[in-house]
Structure formats: structure tokens, C-alpha cells
């Protein structure tokens, strides 16, 4: 009882002192790193988060609930915001881009992780597979047989007499650093994986990916419009008006890594209009998107054609960078499955539905319609037409639109089934949401490129 009481007192004092400094200005003998001036909101939020993290121990004691992850989330977010603000002050920038990014990340992470719904279904083995890679077992799940058998070997396939997840390993590979960290902080975490599915931890990782998506997309839109209003509005649309919230951040599904890689690709493509050499690195996120989900091949193919046409000089290097990820992945497939691609990538389907039903269903069906659950995305069409006014980016905007249409056609024809199985909303259309919301942004504020993609304005 003593530890929760001390945490409650210390946390309450921190929050109270931070509020007084925020409302009245720095009090006598206030450390310079605490609050800089009256109304210093980022610093107040940071210290309030740290204080609430300390108070959380008492809250968990009273509620008889373990709030460890929530406290880590609050405290870590507060420390990250403090670090970002300290770094920003040393840079003498006109606007605290690092601080704003950290604040936006903390807010998104809190909202995504705080949303109570979890859908650890097909993604149930993502954390186990990530830990297997982190421990050098290369996706072999043999040590987790107790929980595998308890779940009746759902979505498990045997390769060379070893159990592996049926689904792509991309999201698990991206999560390996997190496994290394949690193993150091919580040495018994791996032992717990043998008997349980860590739904809460999986939700935290999914929330982190969703928050990264939101922050990076914010700067994509800001770089294009040079408007924080448009950037924030578009980011809120992407994060909370689409299946990014209802699907991609509810578990370690394949969708969040694909969206994240596509947003990184958008950054590189838009920045390449200023520095053409940047385009060569596009191969890295695109290769990772395909490793995460086979339907990403649509975006990979269309972007590759774009690079070949408009950046031919850099095409060989673009391919070379993609091979840095593709070759190890293919080598893993050969060693594990004796094939270039995993079985999930080469399964053939015989559609038993009308293509017209699928095309319309993915857009307007009551259970899966994209425009039923996210009607604001209807603005993407007029937004696309407005975007064509910009001659300098017209080819790129047509490329984004081509990916949207091609993806819609592919998932309607080759999806198994096209309605996305036992899911909620337009799951199969989730991967192309950044492109759709990018066009929606043209309807949220004045068009044009007011020096948005200059190095000083957008990124530094």
C-alpha cells in the first residue's frame, strides 16, 4: 500500500505544480527544464502524463487491475515529449516539428491503445512469430505448442515438420525490435507466450504502428499544402474516420505495416520531386509492403512502372535497394518451404461470385461498403480532379489513383472471399486509405503547393 500512496502523492504534486506553472508562469526556483513560460502547453502535457503515470499505481490498486502497460504508455509518452521539446529548443527552429510530432504520436497512441476493442484473430501468432525471430528460431513456433494446441492449431501450417504461422511474416519482422526490448524489461515474457496470447501487448504494438502512420501522414499532407489545419484534418480523417481505427490498429493484422510502408513511399515520392536521387530508396518500403501482404504487389508494380518512366536513371538502384529485403526473404522461403514464395502467396482461388457484385459490394454493401462506413472518402473523387490542376504532380497523382482502382479490382476478383471473411467493415480496402485521404485533403483547404516541399518547410 505504501508504494501506491507514494506514487499518488508524487504524481499529484507534479500535476498540480505543472498546472500552476502553466497557468501563472514559472514559479520561483522552477527548474528551466520544467516549464519555459506561461501557457507552455507541450511541457504541461508532458509533465501531466508523467504525473498521471505515477498516480496510475494507486488507480490500479483501487480498481484491482494491472495498469502497468497504461502507466508505461503515459510515462514513456511524457518522457518522449520532454526529450523532443528539449531537442527542439537546441535547434532554434521557428516551429517545434519534433515536439509536435511527439505530441501527436502520444495522443494517437493513447486513443488507439485506449480503444477497448481487440481483434486478435488471424493475427494471434504475430507476437509469437516475432519472438521466434528475435530468439533466432526463424519463425519456428515449436516451443509454443501448449498455446498452439489450446487454439487447435488455428492458422498453423507445418513446414519441414515445424509449425509456422500461415500468414505473412512482415508484421512480425517489423516487431522484432520490440521483442528484444520487452525481453530485457520482462525476462519471463517469452515463457508466458507458451501458454497465452498477449492480446494487450499486441494491441499496444498495433497502436504504435497506427500512431506512426498518423504522424508520418501528417507531414505528408503538411508538406503538400503547407497548412497545419489541412494536415491535422486529413490525419484525423485517416486515423478515426476509416478502418485504420476499426481494423488496422485493433491487432497485428497485415494492414498496418502495408499502410505504414505506403505512407513512407509517399514521403519519398513527393520529396523526389525536389531531389530525384531520393527515389532509389523507394524500393525498401515497397519490398517490405509485399513481405507484409501479397496484395501490396499492386502498389509495387504501379510504383515500379512510375519509377521506370519518370526516374529511369535511378531504376537500377531502386531495384537494388529492394533486393536488400527481397533476397533474404526469398532465401528464408527457400530454406523453410522449398519455394520462392510461402503457400499463402501462391494459393489460387476459383471465384464463385459475380465480379459486379464484388465491385459494388466493396464500395456500398451494408456490411463491407467503403463509402458506407467512411462516407467522407467520397470527397476523394473531386479531390483527385482538383489535384490534376497541378501539372508538376499530375503524373504522381494519376499513379496514386491507378493504385486505388487497381487494388479495388484485384481484391474484388481475387479476394477469398471478396467480403474479407469474419471481419467488420471494408477490411480489404484498408491498404489504400492513405491515397484516398490524400485526395480528400484537396477538399479540406486551398490547393496549390506554396513551397510546401522545401526541405526547410516540410522535414527539417
Order of helices and strands: HHHHHHEEHHHHHHHHHHHHHHHHH
What is the chains' assembly state?
A: single chain
How would you write the strand order of the largest sheet? 1-2
Class from helix and strand fractions:
mainly alpha
Number of domains: 3
Number of helices: 23
How would you briefly describe this protein structure?
Helix content is 64%, strand content 2%. It has helices spanning 2-24, 41-63, 68-91, 97-114, 126-134, 145-150, 170-174, 176-185, 189-193, 199-225, 228-240, 243-248, 255-272, 283-292, 297-310, 315-337, 343-346, 355-364, 370-373, 380-387, 394-414, 433-440, 455-458, and strands at residues 156-159, 162-165.
Report on the structure:
There is one protein chain. The protein is an all-alpha fold. It has three domains: 2-92; 126-196, no CATH class; 202-458, no CATH class. Helix content is 64%, strand content 2%. It has 23 helices and two strands. The chain has helices at residues 2-24, 41-63, 68-91, 97-114, 126-134, 145-150, 170-174, 176-185, 189-193, 199-225, 228-240, 243-248, 255-272, 283-292, 297-310, 315-337, 343-346, 355-364, 370-373, 380-387, 394-414, 433-440, 455-458, and strands spanning 156-159, 162-165. It has a two-stranded antiparallel ribbon with strand order 1-2. Strand 1 (156-159) and strand 2 (162-165) form a beta hairpin. Helix 14 (283-292) runs parallel beside helix 16. The longest helix is centred in the middle third of the chain and has 27 residues, at 199-225. It is globular, with a radius of gyration of 23 Å. The model is unreliable at 91-95 and 450-457 (pLDDT under 50).
